[in-house]
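P.,

For your records, the input lines for the assembly:
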Amino acid sequence: MSLDLLIEKIVKTQNPSVVGLDPAVDLIPGFIRKKSYAKHGETLKGAARAVWEFNKGLIDALCEIVPAVKPQSAFYEALGVEGVKTLCKTCEYAKKRGMYVILDGKRGDVGSTASWYASAYLGTVKIGENEYEPFPADALTVNAYLGSDGVKPFIEACGKYDRGVFVLVKTSNPSSGELQDKTADGRAVYEIMGDMCAEWGKNIIGKYGYSGAGAVVGATYPEQIARLRKRLPNTFFLIPGYGAQGGKAEDLAAAFGKDGLGGVVNSSRGIIAAYKNERRGERDYAGAAYRSAVHMRDDIMKRIHKITI
Amino acid sequence: MSLDLLIEKIVKTQNPSVVGLDPAVDLIPGFIRKKSYAKHGETLKGAARAVWEFNKGLIDALCEIVPAVKPQSAFYEALGVEGVKTLCKTCEYAKKRGMYVILDGKRGDVGSTASWYASAYLGTVKIGENEYEPFPADALTVNAYLGSDGVKPFIEACGKYDRGVFVLVKTSNPSSGELQDKTADGRAVYEIMGDMCAEWGKNIIGKYGYSGAGAVVGATYPEQIARLRKRLPNTFFLIPGYGAQGGKAEDLAAAFGKDGLGGVVNSSRGIIAAYKNERRGERDYAGAAYRSAVHMRDDIMKRIHKITI
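Structure tokens returned:
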């Protein structure tokens, strides 16, 4: 019903970071693409299978030192049905290798529809007498512009299946302030959303003090991170925007408490395409990802020191 | 670059309505499910194939009198990869039968990611030397909580591929007001979103005066429909909430101008599960959908009379 499993994996690896599996086709090493295209043609299937090989290599390299992955659904949907198949396999494989899976789908809808998204990503679907897990994720990112009734099915699924959600509160992109920083009744819209997020999570607080309803808070807005940390003591943060988007470790330090808990920091391109910044060549893309993940871990841990529960 | 194609289909059919293809498993007639389960088992595939049969029957029955369908992605994603395959086939088939396809995915993300969603649903993806259309929709619903940079890739795709988007402005659900009705700088959040929507669409206005950036405005909020119609003269409305959710034809009349243009009204369960309210039995589900669609058309047209361009 909470994010306890994620927190335990963070403590075990002493690494509050998550690797974004955002496999834009041009980030996949050429030798993987070439091999897949030779077998499946320059097709959506060929690209989707290349993504699968790429992801598998990354997961194998990272699973011992990084607690979580965050596949970004857009990159898989862009490869059609075959891409979605790879998304599903990636979730399964990452879990099998011991990683926590945050599916970044930013889903959200009216209540009756949201319950189907919740079943798809956080729960089960019943067909006749059988139950299936369509996409076996541990947590899902959720867009709550529609308000409480659109979020409740996700919260219920968190309680029933011991999963988590991360609600978009203050996003990392340059224009996030256009709506999110507007002030209404003395609160910024992102604070209103943060307060709703805390309210939604209040009955699914786990054993380490954090609820199953986490919040997405961008590393690119350090001031807002600090304000939200004070405001939302029981809300765990998913913090995108580190690295390629410009967020620095010192910017996000405020997300973490004295025990080193409080958030998990995402980097995507900075890790999965790290081989492009090395001279060892693309065949060692997984090694480059590993080295970059270690660097990121150390960079963040310099500010946090030790994570304890 | 606009919603012209949708408008032309509305004029041709003299019917400003769209049928929501929200095939919850228990809405599929038993005889279709039984046949599919016999062949594919009580599996996600069995359910997804049943949905496909169901949808095909509905599209065949409705394509001459209803201008558009709106498949709700959640119901397909809940059936996993096989469900997504059915979603793709449904989009293709509806287009082949002459219907306009609004994919209801409520997608939205930071700019670099949103561009992949735009490619997936409104554009093409390049693999090697080939270009593919992963999900051939005519328009996509978009959640713009992230602001302009998350929406621009969709707007660009509308311009480049002659497609449309519908931005969530004032949604039909009971708790939509929690955020959307809050007042900031003298405007409700839904008005701020509406104004942004108009701004995003100002360079993609089609020949009938409406931009490619439409707005989702719930039939359940007649006062807000009227306010938004005055405020956004070049914005076409997608109006959910008619029928099962409680919206009535008189509630949404304000969306339409003297020419009968201005919006397209969605009904899902009220049409696709109409057979449950008839005594002819489930085998005539498509006939029941047809009769219910005619009833809805007449109900709305009583207020609009004639649609002209």
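Two observations worth noting. Chain A has a mean pLDDT of 97. DSSP finds 13 helices and twelve strands in chain A.

Regards
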